[in-house]
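Technical appendix A lists one of the benchmark inputs used to test multi-chain prediction within the project. The record comprises two sequence entries:
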Amino acid sequence: MIIKYLIEKEFKQLWRNPFILFIIIALPVLVMLVFPWATTMEIKNVNVAVVDNDRSDLSRLLTEKIASTEYFDITGVFMRSEEAMQEIEYGDADIILEIPYGFEEDILSDANSSLLIEANAVNGTKASLGSSYLEMIIVSFAEQAGVSRGALSVSAPGGIAVDSYYWFNPAMDYKIPMIPALIMLVVALITGFLPAMNIVGEKEAGTIEQINVTPVPKITFIVGKLIPYWIIGVVVLSVGMVVAWLLYGLRPEGSVLLLFGLSFVFIFGISGLGLIISNYSSTMQQAMFMIFFIIIVFILMCGIFTPISSMPEWARIISMFDPFTYFAEIMRMIYLKGSTLRDILPNVYPLIAFFVVITGWAILSYRKRG
Amino acid sequence: MISGENTRKRIMELLGREDDHFLKEGDVIRTEGLTKCFGSFTAVDHISFTVRQGEIFGFLGANGAGKTTAMKMLCGLSRPTSGRAVVAGYDLHYNRDVKHLKKVIGYMSQKFSLYEDLKVWENIRLFGGIYGMKDDVIAEKTEDLLRRLDLTAQRNRMVRDLPLGWKQRLAFSVAIFHEPRIVFLDEPTGGVDPATRRGFWEMIYDAAERGITVFVTTHYMDEAEYCNRVSIMVDGKIEALDSPAALKCKYSAPSMDEVFRLLAGKAKREE
């Protein structure tokens, strides 16, 4: 078995390359430890400038209530909207809450009252989530104050979409859906792109030429390179899952076997993609840039950070061709919902299609260049 | 080592083809009109020559004359555009032949291409294994080789830490570790001092004595004198082919250096 010698060689080389070892160990740990906190959608420390035209007890109570949550800081209470606007312009405030004159009176006499929320949409997420949360606080405040629902309306001009996020649902931890997606990212980086870099590295070093004059079939050489990374990929997947369990108490609700099985389809597809890159590049630099390009597009379009449903039509079409879209969904569904194979079939078919197309392309481009 | 008529018959039997006796008894390489084009550029232009079993064949030419391209075709690394070549009984025209050919040749490239991040013994083991040798045979031959190279103490050193001269000797030894019929050396002694080059050529002679045909390209004309026969390539064509003595006589030159300058001076091709 020739491949035995090749795999042995790969492991020896990997073991001696401190940088690659570091990446293999540090990447999953870093990603699992840090990213769930950094990528959370929760908005904290939103600065609110209050324009209080009413100057009543009730308006003061509302301001206090807003300040008492961990999500908002009151930067100041102003007399005129121009002053509050200035706060936004200086970047000191994110949202202006304007309480109308006669607020207390209207509320107490059960008449309708209207508050105005204006948000700085430079940071769109902060603006939309912050204002919708503010809205909810106000509604709950109104209920406490004994005002019937509907008597109080909140208007948010400037076309800010108000999404219905369940802020008061204590179980709604934003780290949780991020974790399965992050495990996917790490697996993709390690199994898809490290072997590609490795193959291009051999081209650069000239060692591939020595291998080419030997009777080793090219396919054996490549598979001999991929197998160690597949093994590492499975190890990284397992480590990621264990870390998720230990650190975040997150375990797959669904079948672990199904999760591993589909991970293999994904891993093979991504390795094939790496192989295509290695076929088209002759230097590490070229390979690096191609990988950067592809990975950035894949990550941004796959919907793990921003929901695909809120993307414009053309972006949604791109995300349809992104394998991450389907695998992230599969991971999340198995992990969080405990979905079975039947539930996730609509995501499994595109994943298999991706695998078939990429493998075919990899073999073709390989033959041509070989 | 098996050779000659019987080997050829056996190869032809294996490949299921009639032997048309293109390769004559005692010859190991024969090319006829071998050509390689890259687009409109003809790198190797209808070269025809024969190399005999066990000889040291020098393949000379200025940079860009087409030596390396020709050699890559003979090793099965690149496909000829036209012409015919049979190496060690295998016809380069057939993919299946090329696969078999690779088992019976060795190759040492211009650029050092063993694995720098593997130890001396690990490189030997890897290439032994790749050529289908058994573990115990590899182990035994490795000890033997390290002793001959005087590298026993260095067996656990990373190849990247060896001096260039030793690297080249190791690369050559690895190229003939599986006892090939022919070894192709592409400028094997670039960048080392004359004493080290001498040592290297002693190894080449040893290999030739064991019956391995040596096909070597070089820039050094003193090395050309060590060859049994040399060919000189100019602009993709073979301009002269004979023993060094005969060439010097023909061009009435005192040294191979002079012969080379006379012929290579006619080159029109830019590098």
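Residues 2-39+174-369 of chain A form one domain. The radius of gyration of chain A is 27 Å. Comparable benchmark entries are summarised in Table A2.
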